[in-house]
Amino acid sequence: MRRGWVVRITLVAPAVNAALRQVRFDDAPPDAAGLRRATAAAGALPHRDTAFTAPSERCRGTAAALGLDAAVTQELGDLDVGRWRGRSLDEVGRKAPEEVAGWLSDPAAAPHGGETLLELVERIGAWLDARREDPAPATPGRAARLLAVVEPAVVRAALVHALGLPAPAFWRLDVAPLTATELSGRAGRWNLRCGYPLAGRAP
Predict the structure, then answer these.
(1) E strands, 73-201, in order
(2) How far is the C-alpha of 42 from the C-alpha of 66, rounded, in Å?
(3) Residue 113 per-residue DSSP state
């Protein structure tokens, strides 16, 4: 990272939908209530120079409801769960309990044929660290401020990487819908401002 300036990255979890409520490995736009809450929260977003969104419908829909002109960024995509996509965790657990148990206990396991937890953390960590090498802001002395709407798993992976946590800690991090988590990068390290709810409630 260039000496003398800081990059601040705010990660915003998307609005809720049925798949999130059911812990289903699926993608769909936010539901009507989630969109109302996102629209109400738009004014609470921090200042940003650049906005990004993961490619999922849920994240893109949330970014639009928040009023963001966000660049769709494939590197910020959700964990690839392979053949489990479209199924709920309960359903998979009933049909393949040993596979689920292995997945939850071994960060290098991918019984679904998709991406391992370690691969997710590496991918998101590479994106974070690359942002520390982006050009410095035009205004000297001011932090570069970025914002990204990303799936909860991506927020959790970012925290594991930024804080140097053991990979299994991923499963012990909760990320609520429409909360913001801020990472500040300076001189080869990341500092954390823990997730806080965006202001604004649906009428």
Answers:
(1) 144-149, 179-186, 189-197
(2) 4
(3) S
Burial class of residue 94, CB neighbours in 10 A (0-12, 13-18, 19+): exposed
Q: What mean pLDDT value characterizes the chain?
A: 89
Give which of 133, 162, 131 is closest to 148, Cα–Cα: 131
pTM (predicted TM-score) = 0.90
- SS3 category, 145: strand
At 36 the pLDDT is 93
Tens digits of residue pLDDT in 120-155:
999 999 999 998 877 655 555 567 899 999 999 999
The structural domains of the chain, ordered by start, are 6-193 (3.40.50.1240)
